[in-house]
Amino acid sequence: MTGKVSNLEDGKIAGDPSRSREQPRLCRPQTAGGKFTLVTLAICAGSLMLCGCNSKQETSGGEKTGEQTSSTGSGTTTEPAKSEDKTGQASQTNTPDDATAKEPAVTGGNVKLPNAVNLATLPPTMVICTVDGTPVTISQFKREYREAIGSLQAVLGMQPMQVQELVKQATAAGVSLTAEEKKKLLEAARKPQSLEGKSLDKFLKEKKLTEAEFDKQVIDLGLAFKVGAKLIEQQLLTELINRELLLAEAKAQNFYKPAYNNYLKVKDLPKYKKMLEMSDQTPEEIKEDLIQGEMLIMLMQKIARESVASDKELLAFYQKNKEAFKHGEKVRLSHIVLAAPRVDAPPMESIKTQLKKQNPTMSDADLDKEVLVVKQQKMRLAQELLARANKGEDFKSLANDNTEDMQARQAKNGGDLGYIDVVAAQAGPDQKALLDAVKNLKPGQLALTPVETNFGYHVIKLTEKVPAGTFSFDEIKDQLKEKFVAQNMEAAKTRWLVNKRKSAKIVFSDEFRKASSTASVPQANVK
Question: Within a domain: residue 74?
Answer without folding.
Answer: no
